[in-house]
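SAMPLE LOG
Freezer: B-3
Tube label: C17
Construct: single chain, 243 aa
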Amino acid sequence: MGTLFYKDVGSGTRRKGRDGYIEMLKDAQKHRFDLILVKSLSRFGRNIVETLSTIRRLKKMNIAMLSDVEQINTMEVNEVLLSILLAAAQEESAAKSENIKFGIRQRMRSGKAVLNHTRFLGYTKDEDGRLVVVPEEAEIVRKIFSLYLAGYGVRKIKRYLEENGIKTVTGKSEWSTSTIDRMLSNEKYMGNLLLQKTCTPDFLTGKQKKNCGEQSMFLVENAHEPIVSKEIFEDAQRRKHKM
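STRUCTURE (predicted):
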C-alpha cells in the first residue's frame, strides 16, 4: 500500500469543511490503508461519541490509528483510557475556543471592529479592515432610506429598484424584501457598529444564532463614515416600530 494524505481546512470539531475526513472514512471501507497517523485526537473527530464510534469502526476493519501528541495506538489501548484521553482533548478544544472568543470580546470592548463579511451595499473594507464608503453604492442606500421615509414599503422599494435597473451589491437584478428591510435597520449606515449580534453557544456545532442576551453586545459610535444621518436612520426606526 502507498501513503495517502487527507487534509481538512475546517475545524476538527465539526464535519462542515472536513472533506478529507469524509474521504478517508470512505477509503477505509475500501481497505485502501491499514494505519492512520494523526497529529492529535482533538483534530480527529467532532466529539467523544463520534470519535469513539469511528475508532470502533476502524478497529473492526483492522485499521489502527496512531496519535502523535498522545502517543497511542488505538489497537493497543483500552476504551476506558481512550475515553479519558478524548475527554481531555475535547476540553482542550473548548478552552482554545473560549480563548479565541475572549480575545474577540476584548477587541470589541476596546471599540475595535470585528467584521466577518468582506462588503455590503454602500461599504467595502480597506486593507486594515476598516469600512470605507463606496460612493455610487451609497447613493442607492440613501435612496432606499429616502423612499422609505416618503412612505414606500419594502415591496414598493423593491419594485422601484428593479424597474430602474438598480442592481444589488452582488450584481443581481432582483432584490429581496428581507435584504431591504435589514438595510433599514443596519446601524452601520449611520456610522455606528453594534458588535456581537450573533453568538455561538456550542463550540462543537459551531452554529451561530441571534444573540438574544446570551452574550454582551458592544456599540461603537462614530466608528466610520456614515452614509445617512443619525436623524434619518432614527426616523426610519420610528416608522418601522409603528408598522
